[in-house]
Specification:
Elements: E1 17-21, H1 24-27, H2 40-45, H3 63-77, E2 81-85, H4 88-91, H5 101-116, E3 120-126, H6 142-158, E4 164-169, H7 171-180, H8 192-216, E5 222-227, E6 232-234, H9 239-252, H10 257-262, H11 267-273, H12 284-288, E7 295-298, E8 303-307, E9 314-317, H13 336-349, E10 354-359, H14 375-393, E11 398-404, E12 423-426, E13 431-434, H15 436-447
Parallel strand pairs: 1-2, 1-11, 2-3, 3-4, 4-5, 5-7, 6-8, 7-10, 10-11
Antiparallel strand pairs: 8-9, 12-13
The structure holds ligand GBH.
EC number: 3.2.1.21
Protein name: Beta-glucosidase
InterPro entries: GH (IPR017853), GH_1_N_CS (IPR033132), Glyco_hydro_1 (IPR001360), Glyco_hydro_1_beta-glucosidase (IPR017736), TAT_signal (IPR006311)
Length: about 450
């Protein structure tokens, strides 16, 4: 064990699972087709001033129609797996109640097409496109039950062919950023008590979803979630700073992954929230703590942390606007987070398996002479993968990696202004062109080693 020098062409475990990730609202388009119901992101993106340039996902990458072409992109990369999400409102246009068979039929075809091309689908059930018709959205506890019903229906239909399900994507984003900070749909700025209740409904939906999948899926189906846990890098690799990183990971995620892994809210969280603490009903924490087959994490940027004598025992070091970042101002560069994210989750909770459900970056990609030479993205990915590789070398149970993203897509509040793909999408023509990073990723997969 020990740090590998960046750029050392070490290899990954022989069965390491290479993949790419996308999400339904970001790529599908076809928002009014085959009975799909509206979502909170349709409403939000059609409200002037909410999304950069007032962009929306009406067409996006048109993947609803072009999924076969997308499968061929995956195949050409040589990935073994594809992480995609399902649009809940295609299956239940109103979130609950009447099922729309055309929605399930569509995903049936997508799954079959992937399998026919040797690509294993990993399915995320909720990646933020909440059906608009659900009263109160995540403010309403009933939404957690509606999610579980939907998850069970999907598991029943697809688990004969799909072995891996992730309940939700990124709890912090569809709760805090959406209901407390107002930057994502539905764009609310609720006070702490109501915000904490939204968080609680989010983790509850995950937990009830796990139970519903297990009750309906073929035995042996693997269930987990994809979370953008806040991760911390010890500024100096000594035991005191490493302990600070572990402690920060546990405390700072008390309302999300920590609650899920431990089946309880930390006392420190409940005390700090005081009267605004979430209202928890009997049985909730047991559901939330339902055992998982794997934990998947979305890893983009670090916070650096140091040990500190005063409570809580660590100090998070702030980023400065001029700290190095990729094209998105929030995407600070700190590739050691790749290792420390896996290490801290492993040290704290020992999940049976870990995946990287997203890692990637935005870059100011410009097509020149029909090519996109995105050296910045290759730099970012190679650095991160060097540190993920360290985790595999040290025997941590990291099983696979999903690059975000297969192609440029609707980047939420940033509209189409930020490109994360290894394929360039010309949104006027829908033409997909592999960037240099796609060529690089293909070579890495072919050798199963850093290149
Ligand atoms: C992930 O979010 C998402 O799962 C994925 O859908 C998305 O496309 C991808 O990463 C790239 O962003 O501008 O200050 O409001 C990563 C976490 C949360 C990071 C929202 C950007 C907005 C920061 N994202 N955040 S700000």
């Amino acid at each position: 064990s020990g740090a590998l020098p960046i750029g050392n062409a070490g290899s990954f475990p022989p069965d390491f699972l290479w993949g790419c990730a996308t999400a339904s609202y970001q790529i599908e388009g076809a928002v009014k087709e085959d009975g799909r119901g509206p979502t909170i992101w349709d409403t939000f993106s059609h409200t002037p001033g909410k999304v950069f340039n007032d962009d929306n996902g009406d067409v996006a990458c048109d993947s609803y129609h072009r999924y076969k072409e997308d499968t061929q992109l995956l195949k050409a990369l040589g990935v073994k797996t594809y992480r995609m999400s399902l649009a809940w409102s295609r299956i239940f246009p109103e979130g609950k109640g009447k099922l729309n068979p055309k929605g399930l039929d569509h995903y049936d075809r997508v799954v079959d097409d992937l399998l026919a091309n040797g690509i294993t689908p990993y399915i995320t059930l909720f990646h933020w496109d909440l059906p608009q018709a659900l009263p109160g959205g995540w403010q309403n506890r009933d939404t957690a039950y509606a999610f579980a019903d939907y998850a069970g229906v999907v598991a029943k239909r697809l688990s004969d062919r799909v072995n891996h399900f992730m309940t939700v994507n990124e709890l912090r984003c569809f709760t805090d950023i959406s209901y407390m900070e107002g930057r994502h749909a539905p764009g609310l700025k609720l006070p702490p008590a109501e915000g904490n209740q939204v968080r609680h409904h989010g983790v509850l939906a995950h937990g009830l979803g796990v139970q519903a999948i297990r009750a309906n899926a073929k035995p042996g189906t693997q269930v987990g979630l994809a979370d953008n846990t806040s991760f911390f890098v010890p500024v100096i690799e000594t035991e005191e700073h490493i302990e600070a990183a572990r402690k920060a990971t546990r405390e700072e995620n008390a309302m999300f992954l920590t609650a899920i892994m431990e089946g309880r809210y930390l006392d420190s969280y409940m005390q700090a929230q005081g009267a605004a603490a979430p209202k928890v009903q009997a049985g909730d924490m047991k559901a939330i703590g339902s055992p998982l087959d794997f934990v998947a994490i979305n890893v983009y940027c670090p916070s650096y942390v140091r040990a500190d004598a005063s409570a809580p025992g660590y100090k998070i070091l702030p980023h400065l606007p001029e700290s190095p970042h990729m094209a998105s101002p929030w995407l600070y560069v700190g590739p050691e987070v790749a290792y420390w994210s896996v290490r801290c989750v492993h040290d704290l909770w020992k999940p049976k398996a870990l995946y990287i459900s997203e890692n990637g970056c935005s870059a100011d990609d410009v097509m020149t002479d029909g090519r996109v030479d995105d050296a910045d993205r290759i730099m970012y990915l190679r650095n991160c993968l060097g540190h993920f590789q360290r985790a595999t070398r040290e025997g941590l149970p990291l099983k696979g990696y999903f690059l975000w993203s297969l192609m440029d897509n609707f980047e939420w509040a940033d509209g189409y202004s930020k490109r994360f793909g290894v394929h360039y999408v010309d949104f006027a023509t829908q033409k997909r062109t592999p960037k240099l990073s796609a060529e690089w990723y293909r070579e890495l997969i072919r050798r199963n080693a850093l290149v």
